[in-house]
């Protein structure tokens, strides 16, 4: 099972979800993200939020169409998105993808990035997607990459205080056994120089971001 969570970030940053209604996908709405899903004729299996960002009419429609909607108070210890991620993790999915969690308020965005650590800790891939980027966290190891003309730029950032032994093969700017730490921009904005490449590292937690040119959108 693959769980896709749609939160209530700025709609201009959210890609079209397409017609992926296969049985292997479970859609989850978070606050205004529920409204975004309904607009695309997708009824989420689960919904979370205090719903302070929707109108009374929109909330009434959600309650009418969604059988499993959890309404929370505005004052609580977790964000609406964390509640959804915690529920998703408990389902033991193959992967979790989050939409609508970039743009807008930076505190929420940075908090959502840190939610990805729950995946690292539990062996579940969590990805963030918007119209411009795809973000993923990875543990030490070696990983294959394929050139993607829609997302040509590839960046690596340390999520742990330091990441050691980074090697980039098949890249325009290759690296061999380099170390980076918080505050370093060495691995920002690279590209694959061949159709296929690899990246590897020995220790730490690394974020990989695949991005497109700012003049294009997904």
TrEMBL record:
Keywords, in A-Z order: ATP-binding, Kinase, Nucleotide-binding, Transferase
GO molecular function terms noted in the UniProt entry: thiamine diphosphokinase activity
Domain Thiamin pyrophosphokinase thiamin-binding: 141-207
Coiled coil: none
Protein's UniProt keywords contain Acyltransferase: no
Enzyme class, spelled out: transferase
EC number from the UniProt entry: 2.7.6.2
Leader peptide range in chain numbering: none
Keyword Transmembrane in annotation: no
Protein name per Swiss-Prot or TrEMBL: Thiamine diphosphokinase
Organism of this sequence: Sutcliffiella tianshenii
Lineage: Bacteria, Bacillati, Bacillota, Bacilli, Bacillales
